[in-house]
Design brief:
The complex is a heterotrimer.
Chain A: H1 2-15, E1 24-29, H2 36-46, E2 49-54, H3 57-66, E3 74-75, H4 83-89, E4 92-93, H5 107-116, E5 118-119, E6 122-123, E7 126-138, H6 139-142, E8 160-161, H7 166-175, H8 187-204, H9 215-224, E9 229-233, H10 234-243, E10 247-250, E11 257-263, E12 265-266, H11 272-282, H12 285-295, E13 298-299, H13 310-319, H14 322-326, E14 329-330, H15 338-351
Parallel strand pairs in A: 1-2, 1-3, 8-9, 11-14
Antiparallel strand pairs in A: 4-12, 5-6, 7-9, 7-10, 7-11, 7-13
Helix pairs in contact in A: 7-8, 8-15
Chain B: H1 4-36, E1 38-42, E2 45-48, H2 51-58, H3 60-94, H4 97-108, H5 115-126, H6 131-138, H7 152-176, H8 180-188, H9 193-222, H10 225-230, H11 238-248, H12 252-277, H13 281-287
Antiparallel strand pairs in B: 1-2
Helix pairs in contact in B: 1-12, 2-12, 3-7, 3-9, 7-9, 8-9, 9-12, 9-13, 11-12
Chain C: E1 8-16, E2 21-30, E3 35-39, H1 46-54, E4 61-66, E5 69-70, E6 81-84, H2 96-106, H3 111-124, H4 140-152, E7 158-162, H5 170-187, E8 190-195, H6 198-204, E9 207-212, E10 215-220, H7 222-227, H8 232-237, E11 242-252, E12 255-260, E13 265-269, E14 280-285, E15 290-293, E16 306-314, E17 321-326, E18 332-335, E19 350-355, E20 361-364
Parallel strand pairs in C: 3-8, 3-9, 6-7, 7-8
Antiparallel strand pairs in C: 1-2, 1-4, 4-5, 9-10, 11-12, 11-14, 12-13, 14-20, 15-19, 16-17, 16-19, 17-18
Classes of the chains: A alpha/beta, B mainly alpha, C alpha+beta.
């Protein structure tokens, strides 16, 4: 089946030689980041048309890799996945800061993202939406779960779920008192950390009901009560909280993992002007608030939180006090090759009985 | 001797299928093979070699999953045959006219919705808070919720359900062509149901059985959604591994090698199956 | 009864389907070693009757005995009868030897014994050494013999044959008639043969039952059925016959005088016709019962003499006939001996027909 997909991609590549008019913006983004109303307003104001493809980090990179950075004019991968992908596959082009209205960005986030996405002296990413992953817990049934390793506790056996992906490795490492981000540059040291996490996750496997894959899957598991504690995104927890006040997002004691989704320009994008127009448009405080209300996460726009619904703000504040905010572990750029080590570890955990 | 005109016609008729074969099948596979023999030695640096294939044999996870997938697919094929044969026999031999058409259509109804929806349907039935679990509790057969999902049995159910039509259709076709008087002759000559099934019905249906099994085996082996969604934390499926290599690990090289191995595996099993059942591919595909 | 029970005995056998009665109170018996034919048009119920004997259908009422034992409720695979199917139903996936040995395998006979008996029976039907061949390697007549061998190897009490010659071409069919009869004689097994072809039934049978609408119209040896049909249906169905619709004018002892619808006077001998004057009747007259002459000389004193002209000549070797048109009345078919002057008859020739009153049969007209 994958072979078929792959061949289709190859053929699609060959056939994408069609001309796209410069004012069509082909946007590769996450679900919720480009709501209908925002697109309608943008098209009305600028005359551009927008085609949206929703995806996730891995698929965004895979798609752009298959076309050598073509087929899309603007993409939104997380900031830690930009330099390594650029180094390996060369699928992005640098940002022209003169075309960006930098005043609309929260300076500290703009600065941090610029630093993290600089490759060979060029900036490749601008911050857009940020959020965290941590614990989503049914507090009535698993109030004791306050950190990642608590998921392995006997009291929640068989009612736990997490993804078998790299954030799980990193979250558990922090929870075990290790500092994986500090070891990013040191392969041997990082491997040592991975080995410890592997042992822990292998031991924890019996506690897990199933490894979840998609956002809807984990929400269903939590909503039905089949799972009472999980590692998941903050927005998922807040959405469930709206239906069932017992379920909410909990920032783990060892720190939530913070991510920033960015704007990047694919190497062979054809509508750069439209892309910059979109960036400057969605970073306006009013538009940013609209996006926050649909996506559930806050943006890097100055004043973007002012128009956000009171409920969402309340949930955010319920999950994050100031100490928890300060304790967020922001993903640094992933060095190229590190994911191969993580992949091997994940495979071994998957295969362990 | 053919005239030049008819030769031209022959090549014109041949052109679409050749084009299809070359552009959509041979070229992508050549490309895939080329990728599979590229070994990564650094960022954007590759060398030619069979390292990716070596990785497969050195890493127990890969070949264990490979073997597991093959065995589960064979089991799924066998189960599909066991469930599909009586259905096909009933449709082909015991019903007539409108009933036959209706039953045949009913077999196809599940295929009017997407595979994803079908699989979600099974999740709703099998999950801990699902229909079966609640029914058993309601009937007082169990005291607490039962989880049917996230194990190999759930995968089997999903695979059999997904592929049963592809077993039933060729079986109905071959069984339809079995003259009723052959079965009656079998009884008349003193045969019982079992010996008639073994000596008359099954030998006659063999081409249908084999072609059904080939299709179901291929579908099961290449299935991606069902094992991922219904399977549990230990339920690995080889296509899932290929997906992981291509998409989450960005390792197209190993992914391509795994893809080629899957191709070899399916061809190998089909070849073996044909040898064991003493059928030829041309026969099987021609008759069913 | 001092005699052993007949091989096959049907008592008041009836089969009802949802909306019609296929077999209607049929009773007959077939003695051991005889060739019994059931002759009837398609749809007369003969196949249903045969399938009841074989056990594929169960009777609605009545009883069926084989060698004196009731077969009601006995499944087909437990009955001492075997059946040769219309299209023979040889198993295409097996070779000839396995086909013939199928029944013995079901009985659990040892392999060597099966092989011996298969070879023996194939030799008896005149096909030695074909055991290893595939079914499609044999000719139509050979398949026929294999189908019989496949049944006979089981030594059944009764062999049922369901129009097995239907699919053969004419020449082969003629040949197989003779062969079937001699095989039956050689095996000395009771054969029950159904057919719609009267010639097959006449040639092969010891006894014929003529069946119509689920009932037996007559049972008897071929000569009797042919020459003394009990009913108008039998007279019309078995063999060729001219049918003349007439009305009874007077009865004079055994001699009936009738007037055909076209006004010709007919004289027929019929002792117990049960007819009375004025009643409508049907007269049946076989083509070979009519004498044909080219002149009126020597016809003095004969009865039923009529002058006519030849309408057409149907040359068919020994079975040639002419159609004669009388001045009044319907054309009648007359057998044409291929001798002397007769061979020279052409359409338009003047001929005289005459027939003996004893050679015609008369029955009440349907509904009369």
């Amino acid at each position: 089946m994958k072979i078929k997909v792959f061949s289709t991609v190859l053929v699609a590549t060959a056939l994408t030689a069609q001309i796209t008019s410069a004012d069509t913006l082909r946007l590769l983004t996450w679900g919720g980041y480009a709501p209908e109303e925002v697109i309608a307003k943008f098209e009305e104001e600028t005359g551009h048309t927008v085609e949206v493809t929703t995806s996730n980090n891995e698929e965004m990179i895979a798609k752009l890799r298959a076309t050598n950075g073509g087929g899309f004019d603007l993409a939104q991968p997380s900031q830690d996945r930009i330099t390594s992908a650029q180094e390996e596959f060369g699928i992005y082009k640098p940002i022209d800061m003169s075309k960006v209205n930098a005043d609309q960005f929260i300076p500290s986030m703009l600065m941090a993202t610029a630093t993290n996405t600089t490759y060979e002296g060029e900036i490749y990413g601008l911050p857009h939406v940020w959020g965290t992953s941590g614990l989503v817990v049914n507090t009535a049934e698993a109030g004791d779960v306050t950190d990642y390793t608590d998921l392995c506790d006997g009291s929640v056996a068989g009612k736990v779920s997490y993804r078998l992906k790299r954030p799980t490795l990193i979250g558990f490492a922090y929870s075990m008192g290790l500092d994986p981000f500090a070891a990013y540059g040191d392969t041997d040291k990082y491997q040592e950390i991975l080995d410890q996490v592997e042992a822990k996750l292998t031991e924890c496997k019996a506690n897990v009901k199933t490894y979840w894959d998609g956002g809807d899957e984990i929400k269903n598991l939590l909503r039905s009560g089949e799972v009472v504690a999980s590692m998941a995104w903050d927005t998922g927890g807040w959405q469930l909280n709206a239906d069932n006040p017992d379920i909410t997002f909990v920032a783990p004691e060892s720190g939530a993992l913070g991510w920033i989704d960015t704007f990047v320009l694919p190497a062979r994008g054809r509508a750069d002007d439209a892309a910059y127009d979109w960036i400057n448009f969605v970073m306006r405080p009013d538009i940013a608030a609209m996006i926050t209300n649909t996506a559930g996460n806050f943006t890097a726009a100055v004043g973007g939180d002012e128009g956000v619904s009171a409920d969402l703000k309340a949930r955010y504040q319920g999950s994050f006090d100031q100490a928890a905010v300060d304790n967020i572990k922001w993903y640094p750029p992933v060095p190229a090759g590190l994911e191969t080590l993580e992949g091997a570890t994940l495979d071994r955990i998957n295969a362990a009985k | 001797m053919t005239t030049d005109g008819s030769k031209l016609g022959f090549y014109l008729l041949l052109a679409p299928i050749l084009l299809w074969l070359v552009v959509l099948i041979i070229l992508p596979h050549l490309g895939l093979f080329w990728v599979s023999i590229s070994e990564k030695i650094g960022p954007r640096e590759f060398q030619t070699g069979f390292g990716n294939y070596v990785t497969f044999f050195e890493e127990p996870l890969y070949w264990r999953t490979f073997a597991r997938t093959a065995i589960m697919s064979i089991l799924a094929t066998a189960l599909t045959l066991i469930f599909g044969f009586p259905i096909a026999y009933y449709i082909a031999k015991l019903t007539r006219g409108r009933t036959k058409t209706t039953l045949f259509l009913m077999c196809m109804i599940p295929f009017w919705v997407s595979e994803l929806v079908r699989t979600f349907g099974w999740m709703i039935l099998l999950r801990e808070t699902g229909v079966f679990s609640n029914l058993l509790q309601y009937l007082g057969l169990v005291s607490g919720p039962v989880e049917f999902l996230y194990n190999d049995a759930a995968i089997m159910v999903g695979l059999v359900y997904t592929s049963i039509l592809f077993m039933v259709v060729p079986l109905v076709t071959t069984l339809d062509s079995l003259d009723d008087s052959l079965i009656e002759a079998g009884y008349d000559l003193g045969g019982n149901s079992l010996s008639i099934l073994r000596e008359i019905v099954i030998p006659h249906a063999m081409p249908g059985i084999v072609s059904g099994c080939i299709v179901v085996f291929m579908l099961s082996l290449g299935n991606y959604l069902t094992p991922i969604l219904l399977g549990g934390k230990d339920s690995l499926w080889f296509t899932g591994m290929i997906y992981t290599q291509f998409i989450t690990r960005f390792n197209w090289e190993l992914g391509s090698a795994l893809g080629f191995l899957l191709l070899a595996l399916s061809s190998g099993v089909v070849f073996l199956g044909l040898k064991l059942s003493r059928q030829s591919l041309a026969d099987t595909m021609g008759r069913a | 009864m001092a005699n052993p029970a007949p091989d096959l005995q049907c008592l008041d056998l009836t089969k009802d389907f949802d909306d019609f009665r296929a077999v209607d109170h049929v009773s007959f018996e077939v003695p051991q070693g005889s060739f019994f034919s059931i002759l009837g048009p398609s749809g007369c119920g003969k196949t249903t009757l045969l399938r009841m004997i074989a056990g594929f259908q169960s009777p609605s009422s009545g009883d069926l005995l084989i060698k004196g034992a009731s077969m009601i409720g006995v499944p087909p695979n437990k009955r001492p009868v075997s059946m040769v199917f219309q299209h023979l139903a040889l198993f295409p996936t097996m070779n000839i030897g396995d086909n013939v040995g199928f029944g013995l395998r079901q009985r659990g006979v040892a392999r060597a014994e099966i092989a011996r008996r298969v070879d023996e029976i194939l030799a008896r039907v005149g096909l030695p050494g074909v055991a290893g061949r595939r079914v499609d390697q044999l000719s139509g007549g050979q398949k026929q013999r294999v189908a019989i061998a496949r049944c006979m190897v089981l030594e059944p009490d009764v062999l049922l044959l369901d129009e097995p010659l239907g699919a053969l071409d004419l020449k082969l069919r003629e040949h197989m008639k003779v062969e079937l009869k001699s095989l039956q004689a050689a095996f000395n097994t009771t054969f029950v043969y159904i057919t719609h072809d009267q010639s097959e039934a006449l040639v092969m049978s010891d006894n014929i039952a003529v069946m119509n609408r689920g009932r037996f119209e007559q049972i008897g040896p071929p000569q009797e059925v042919y020459h003394s049909p009990d009913t108008a249906f039998v007279a019309g169905f078995v063999g060729e016959a001219n049918r003349i619709d007439a009305r009874l004018v007077s009865v004079n002892g055994p001699v009936l005088t009738l007037e055909s619808e076209s006004g010709a006077a007919l004289s027929v001998e019929a002792a117990q016709s049960g007819l009375s004057a004025g009643q409508r009747a049907q007269v049946f007259l076989r083509p070979e019962a009519i004498e044909l002459t080219t002149s009126a000389e020597g016809l003095e004193g004969r009865e039923n003499v009529t002058k006519g002209t030849v309408a057409s000549v149907l040359f068919n070797g020994a079975n040639s006939s002419v159609t004669v048109q009388h001045a009044s009345g319907t054309p009648i078919s007359v057998a044409l001996p291929q001798t002397g002057d007769m061979a020279k008859l052409r359409p338009g020739s003047t001929v005289y027909t005459s027939w003996h009153p004893g050679r015609a049969r008369v029955y009440p007209a349907p509904g009369a």
